[in-house]
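Trying the structure run again after the queue cleared.
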Amino acid sequence: MTRALSAGLRRVIEGADPVTGRLKGTEAQLAALVRRGLAFRHPRAPHHHFLTPAGHRARDAEAEAKTEPTPEPATTGVFAARVGGEDTAPGTGPARLREVRGAWQGMLELRRMTNPDGATDRPCAWERSHLVQAAALALEAAGHDPAVGDTEGGYRVRGTPQPEAVAVHEPDGTALRACAGTLERAGWQVGEYTEPRTRARYLLASPRRV
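Done. Tokens:
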């Protein structure tokens, strides 16, 4: 952003759908965000407006600016995929399943709307800028079990020093290979590697571009 956003525009960005980035606001507000490159108007009816990758970054920056130095874990109503290793896991019942499936369907719609060719079989720009969350969503939506706390079982998705790559750890070899299959079907390139010191197997996954 080259200029500071007005309070009204910040509220519109902050109120965007957490998965699809769909915006709600006045025509003037939406037009102002389009001019700044933070939103785009979908060409097909009903012509809703959505955040661009720059808009998603602006919203993330606003959220980070409001974060307290030592925040307490809280439920804000914004969906977050389970990356594995959380001390307190969200519910695992029907309500959580519906939430996860809804988030995945929203992600597929975001792919359709933001990939240049409308493809839903490969990650979009938002996923490439939120690698850990995107990979975790694909795994959780497919029914894989994330690790809870320090327990041995379950997947853990972690960032890596490599650009556009995440590591997926799962101590069970069969479950690890199942995670690889899920990510490949979700449009990720996946390789299996061995950690030199521990000899543990893990996955390195990157969003496929073509």
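Helices lie at 7-14, 27-35, 53-65, 94-114, 125-129, 131-141, 173-185. Worth checking whether this holds up in the mutant runs.
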